[in-house]
Amino acid sequence: MQGLKHIHLIGICGTAMASLAGMLQAQGHKVTGSDAAAYPPMSDLLVSLGIPISEPYAEKNLQPNPDLVVVGNAISRGNVELEYVMEHRLPFISMAALIHDEFLRGRDSLVVAGTHGKTTTTSMLAWIFEVASRRRPELSPSFLIGGVAENFGTSFRVRGTKPFILEGDEYDTAFFDKGPKFLHYFPQAAILTHVEFDHADIYADLASVKTAFKRFVNLVPRNGVVVAFDGSANVTECVARAFCRVERYGLAESSHWRVTNLRHEDEGSRWSLLRGGEPFAELYLPMAGEHNALNATAAAALAATQGIDAASIVEALASFRSVKRRLEVIAETRGVTIIDDFAHHPTAIRETLRALRAKYPSRRLIAVLEPRSNTLRRNVFEKELVDSLALADSVILASVFKSESIPVEERLHPESVVAGLKSAGKPAELLPDVDAIVAKIVKEMQPGDVVAILSNGGFGGIYEKLPAAIDAAAGALSL
């Protein structure tokens, strides 16, 4: 773009859209935005930046007319602001295309893609570059992360240096561009974590998901590199025809970057990392879970291919502070620990509960799930969802979020999930709303309980309501 502009974002509270708003503001542009509903952490980020959020969508939010409108991928025809933009012929663009045009030209794009682990791995990679830049300032990274990285206190940063680290989303780009966002990012180097069927609202089957990732890998130039997980046949298929060097990471003896002697201690993980069969580093990560050790290994491997030394990688991972809404302890009150995790897929739920088992091995684990993502609201993974949730000691299900928008024949029936859990011997219950869920937990809570709240949205304010209700109940008992 030439010169400073007024840029309006429709759907500004989406994770990446809010980050883009901050990036554009940092470039000196006037930024406004609108959304149907705002909730943390991205609403907090926008407020801290002084970027106004108009609610709800309305034509007046676009008056006076902005110079450019960014249309979020959740916005479809019929949205009152989008219709105004099209009728008045206002210039518009997708988020991913604007990121490429405004921020990636002339930089080295390092993209983290995959069905699971993108946000955490991107945050780890950015932090490794940041720590390394203390010795080599040219490594100071720009980044765009699909969540608030706690080491930085933000989800984005723009620097004048070459490295730009991005989370590469396989979800579609905009109503006028149904290809994945990551096809706009043209990586010099990439990480591919996992490939599974997801986003059932836009992908017909696993084959179409794999096609998207194959196209992503095909964007990496011959002098680039892809660091790819070595424990997935789907990933193997997706990197099989890469034109660049491919380095695999995982637990297998054949892995170029091999995790060995993995153990969980001090609420964290330790392991030895081999590179091509030779010792590379002894790593500690203050996070539980095999999946987090693998995420860290992927970040370490890509950083090493970019010339970052092992000492910087060791230092960065040992001081990594996770991401908002990824195994985040949001409250510890009256002996009860409340965890927030951005659950969106049965595999992610399984790995979250496995990590919590490792971190809290002797405590009762209660899983509270809101089926909210476009995949979880469908019945395509009903059996897998039962298997994942069965790792908890007891389960509470909320109603399917906006179930009426899912065709009946495709819709998840939480009653069936509850029945499946009970058949497996797990206490499970379907409750109609957040108030009922909070009341049940407060009634049955015991000191030492760990409550894992699994949702990729606001979940009716449960994150505030549950700690407050526990405190109130304990206060009443002490009277």
UniProtKB/TrEMBL annotation:
Gene3D superfamilies named among the record's database cross-references: Mur ligase, C-terminal domain, Mur-like, catalytic domain, NAD(P)-binding Rossmann-like Domain
Top-level taxonomic group: Bacteria
Any one GO molecular-function label of the UniProt entry: ATP binding
Residue ranges occupied by any Mur ligase C-terminal domain in the UniProt entry: 325-457
Start and end residues of each Mur ligase N-terminal catalytic domain: 6-100
This protein's UniProt keywords: ATP-binding, Cell cycle, Cell division, Cell shape, Cell wall biogenesis/degradation, Ligase, Nucleotide-binding, Peptidoglycan synthesis
Location of the Mur ligase central domain: 112-303
GO terms for biological process, alphabetical: cell division; cell wall organization; peptidoglycan biosynthetic process; regulation of cell shape
Name assigned to this protein: UDP-N-acetylmuramate:L-alanyl-gamma-D-glutamyl-meso-diaminopimelate ligase
Organism listed in the record: Terriglobus albidus
Native organism taxonomy: Bacteria, Pseudomonadati, Acidobacteriota, Terriglobia, Terriglobales
Gene that this sequence comes from: mpl
